[in-house]
């Protein structure tokens, strides 16, 4: 699995505001433990260069994160990830909620009883938990003609 | 701020610019988007006073362009304009003699950034390397504004990425950049404002982040709307 700081793999889509995509990336890094509570984050200029975005956009993401209290900036020291437990919990539930919503939205098109769906999710989830993240799902499910 | 107010220009009978008005601000990257022949390059030349306009006004920080404009606005044309027999180091010296705003320190930094060899002859550079050197010559001037004509055109992927990296670095920060490109996809996250030219007129001018957040449209989406309607 790839280690490192997790900045290089960001792929932006061109239809959502870039600054919100940056905020989201921070949230994901916080939830996955790649950014820890209280950890110092790159300056706005460094972030612009790391993510290859316009410095104005980097600035705007930081403003947004400050408003959402995801990061705190005191005086001249670098901005840091918040230590506020309540905020950190909210980030986790927000990301989880969004992921589940997306899943539900795509599964709803297929008419399936919720019990069957839950069984399937449980089985797949347990299986995935035993494998390193990011690997492709096994081919067990693939039927042969 | 660079302001264009109702700029018109004809080449013989053909109206190339037909009442173009828009502005490019300091600290922003503004991109002129348009198909070939839309008048993008002509506009940049007009701002630099390299081609006359027939009516309308061009203002740089509220004043009409004059001789001092060349210290304030750097122009990076779509090809290198240096004599091919010169070595890169001689090209740099030429610029240093010519421009008061030249910064040797910046030039050095840019040469390192693009990994250019000072001893090479300009005429022997590959297209991508020539484009990089062209950027060195333009960006090493401590000008408030930089105009770039097609900095990505005909250049390989890795060189393009390298050039794009310049846009998110301090080498650009705080300046006003006005560039033309038809390879907009590489630049989507880097641009603050887009100005779409069609038949010598401004068909759309918008803040890119605002367009994305209010309408969920990329620059390419807006281009399609403009060109296919």
Question: Brief overview, please?
Answer:
The complex is a heterodimer of chains A (145) and B (229). Chain A is mainly alpha-helical. Chain A has helices at 18-31, 44-51, 55-67, 85-107, 114-129, and strands at 71-72, 80-81.
Helix content of chain B: 25-40%
Return residue spans of chain A where pLDDT drops below 50 for at least 5 consecutive residues: 137-145
Rough outline of chain A: elongated
Determine the CATH topology of the largest domain in chain A. Answer: Arc Repressor Mutant, subunit A
Task: Going across the biggest sheet of chain A, name each strand in turn.
Answer: 1-2
Structural class of chain A: mainly alpha
Q: Average pLDDT of chain A, to the nearest integer?
A: 85
What sort of overall outline of chain B do the alpha carbons produce when their principal axes are compared? Answer: globular
Indicate how many domains the architecture of chain B comprises. 1
Description:
The complex is a heterodimer of chains A (145) and B (229). Chain A is mostly helical. Chain A has helices at 18-31, 44-51, 55-67, 85-107, 114-129; strands at 71-72, 80-81. In chain A, strands 1-2 form a two-stranded antiparallel ribbon. Chain A is elongated, with a radius of gyration of 19 Å. Chain B is an alpha/beta fold and 229 residues long. Chain B starts with a strand and ends with a helix. Chain B is built from 8 helices and 9 strands. In chain B, strand 1 and strand 2 (14-24) form a beta hairpin. Classes of the chains: A mainly alpha (145), B alpha/beta (229). Chain A binds chain B through residues 12, 14-20, 45, 48-49, 51-57, 60, and chain B through 27-29, 164-165, 167-170, 173, 185, 188-192, 209, 212-213, 216-221.
